[in-house]
Amino acid sequence: RFDVAIVDLTEPLEEGPACLLFTREFYRLLSDRLTDGGTLALQAGMTKIGELPFYTAMARTLTGVFPVVAPYQSFIPCFGTPWGFIVAAKSGDPRALAPAAVDQRVRERISGDLRFYDGQAHHHMFSLPKFLREALATATRVITDAEPLIVR
What residues are labeled active site? Predict the structure, then answer.
């Protein structure tokens, strides 16, 4: 069993190899292979206005599998756009970590200087803009083996 799973897949293209790796059934299998406090982190597509169906469907799908689903985003310079990520966990909400607690963990666990991540950046990543919060709150699409999401 695993404490952490990091999923960084290609988009679910029609007849592509990753299509069924975005479904509720896949994430149930993955959840079963995590420890009781296990955490999943994954990339989930663009988070710019007009490009949200993949991101919101991923968040909604994970909500049916994990008790904690924490969407976040960060600007990715080589993509030229904000990109969505999601942490899904059996326990422990990363949004509950205070910036000072994140800074303390970084000091204890990482030698050298980080150029991007610290407590303030952590807090900022989970502070989603209004349009994105609204889209996540109203999302209904659940991705399943029977009805996979295809990115065209």
Answer: 8
